[in-house]
Design brief:
By secondary structure, the chain is an alpha/beta fold. It is 36% helix and 12% strand. It has a 5-stranded parallel sheet. A two-stranded antiparallel ribbon has the order 6-7. Helix 5 packs parallel to helix 6. It starts with a helix and ends in a 29-residue tail after the last helix.
Amino acid sequence: MKIARKAVIALVALLAPLPAQATRPGDTILIAGDSTASAYTGDRYPQTGWGQMLQCGLTPDVRVLNHAMGGRSTRTFLGEGRWQAVLADMMPGDTVLIQFGHNDAYRAKPERWAPARTDYRDNLLRFIWDVRIAGGHPVLLTPVARRSFAADGRAKADFADYSAVVRELAASTDTPLIDLESLSRAWVDRAGRDGSKAYYLHYSPQDHAPGFPKGVDDDTHFSELGARQVADLVAGGLKALNLPISAKVLASRPALTRTTPLGRTECQ
């Protein structure tokens, strides 16, 4: 009787509703990337990563696990065990967004440098197959654009060789691609040289930005407003893909399409 009673209790536990914070396999998006995607604490505001805001474009049952970290290339992400942490958190059916390139291209720091056609390509290929072997869905992203302009006044690709490798790998391995470099360059162009400053970190001491009391001029990292809008580009790209998670990207994303900052990194 005791055994039967224990069996009934176990069955009831299995059939009980999952707690609100529980996530089913396939309902998680994991992000592997660098400082442009990573999350920042309030004392760094207004610096914000696009991965920090992505949740605001998804249905409430989707969980985002943001493993992106500043200063990391594909080489150091692997070497520090961060990629293994992504795989440990991933369940079959989950989606993994992979965006690197900014630090891979940084020759001045050889510990980060991963030449585009060799180490960078090989590392991305490993990421793709690791996710697939574990039953997940890898999605490649080309490196997001800096606020950088060519002689003709249009936004340019500072990591063109790396973007080319990502596109080629996506095609040759049949891996879904979000061409964030192209999307974000067009976004910068629409804003123009002056208007795009609001998307990046351009603050004077008089702005009293909590994270930058002495001011800052940074054309790589995003302000709250910039991170929201880049997250919207990523969300739109994800919705356009034929993946199970695509159906859980909101069609209307007002928290990500704001034209003025909210003053904090919550959705509303």
